[in-house]
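User: Can you predict the 3D structure of Uridine-cytidine kinase? Sequence below.
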Amino acid sequence: MSVACSEMERGEKAASRTDSGSEEALDRLLAPVGAPRRKSSGLGKPDPPLLRTSKRTIYTAGRPPWYNEHGTQSKDAFVIGLCGGSASGKTTVANKIIEALDVPWVVLLSMDSFYKVLSPEEEALAANNDYNFDHPSAFDFDLLVHTLRKLKQGKSVKIPVYDFTTHGRQKDWKTVYGASVIIFEGIMAFADKELLQLLDMKIFVDTDSDIRLVRRLRRDITERGRDIEGVIKQYNKFVKPAFEQYIEPTMRLADIVVPRGGGNMVAIDLIVQHVHSQLEERELSVRAALASAHQAQPLPETLSILENTPQVRGMHTFLRDRETSRDEFIFYSKRLMRLLIEHALSFLPSQSCTVQTPQGEEYEGQSFCGKGITGVSILRAGETMEPALRAVCKDVRIGKILIQTNQDSGEPELHYLRLPKDISEDHVILMDCTVSTGAAAMMAIRVLLDHDVQEDKILLVSLLMAEMGVHSVAYAFPQVKIITTAVDKNVDDLFHIIPGIGNFGDRYFGTDAPPDWSDEEELGGVSC
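Assistant: Sure. Here are the predicted structure tokens for Uridine-cytidine kinase:
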């Protein structure tokens, strides 16, 4: 799953209806008049940090922290609501905003995904162009509000995928996560009071009705295989009346009205300027807060350090020695990782069980009693621990998270993640080779929590940690078990662990570290 940018499969809806349920529907529709409309002013358009492929758009910039030093959500995603009639150009406006924003991690959410599942009778009506898809009752507002609220709070959500051919939801839903900005569009985007409360900015795309009809004819005939008579029948019977009754009246709720749709770059530039100002007000500085907090405290009870036997100390001697060759560094790293993983497994839940030995005798043993085990590595150094985990955990599932330090702000940024399905039910072994301030580890834990992994089921496993990192993680996430082979006392001004082992990734992979590296900084391109 790419979290850099998630775009729903979409298309604006055909059809609307005006029936006896209109008064009841309106009771939940029109909220008090919103802010006055604003006039647009032009701005320069920067080149966005995009990597475009035939199937997806990937933001090559990372997602900055969306939580504070306490590990709690401190800022919601900024939600832009786009409303307008069918074929008014909402999709074009949304894409223009995304391209002009020049910010990472934008999610485009379509109201089209939230049509209700039709009954057999309603399916028959839809097949004859007699079902009104533009009436408020056609949408699952409860699911929509629940989903948008979770997404705004930074949680991972599953989005239904609507099939316009069968008029039903596909079996597999899409997982969406990681929004700094959410662009939510739909014909009824302003038609629900609870929904309106989630929108930070409301935009109405106003397009001439003749243009919308021409666009609708072209789209439904060429893309959806419908005949011209059926399209015109739907438009006259449902779409046009519904626009006048339900959609056009909500224009007064908009903060900005965009005439002419995606061609109005003046309005789009004004929207982009406002969103930038809002995002600047929400910027956080987590690493600096970690460096000055929770120090001079006793080590937490959730910390477990591998027994410092002569063998363990001997391996540390090789790893810390600057003269150790790369081959020996890899060899002793692997030995120590295997011991560390075995030690970490002892903290997983177990239960007594009885088995029969080959001699026919009973043996009172232990067995794992959790749902499953998933290993998640923080790229790139954490990935070196995966073979040790696979060697002792049969059929373990593996996930990956790429976190890099922003060279300008000094803050960790989330670039990429791939997590197994239903990870929320598993015990998760989170692997990183070194932890200095704890900034990267905290971001990775926050990601797991956003995917509904229980905090007390997370084990942070690291070869070497600094006291600062231990305190930071334990303070923010007191139920996370912290497991390591050693804890060093200090971190210098460049966030190097002192005495430390150097840049683990560079020593392991044989690459050269930049002069300003830190123990939590892994450089490299985005992997998707």
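Confidence is low (pLDDT under 50) at residues 1-60, 521-528. The domain at 287-509 is CATH 3.40.50.2020 (Rossmann fold).
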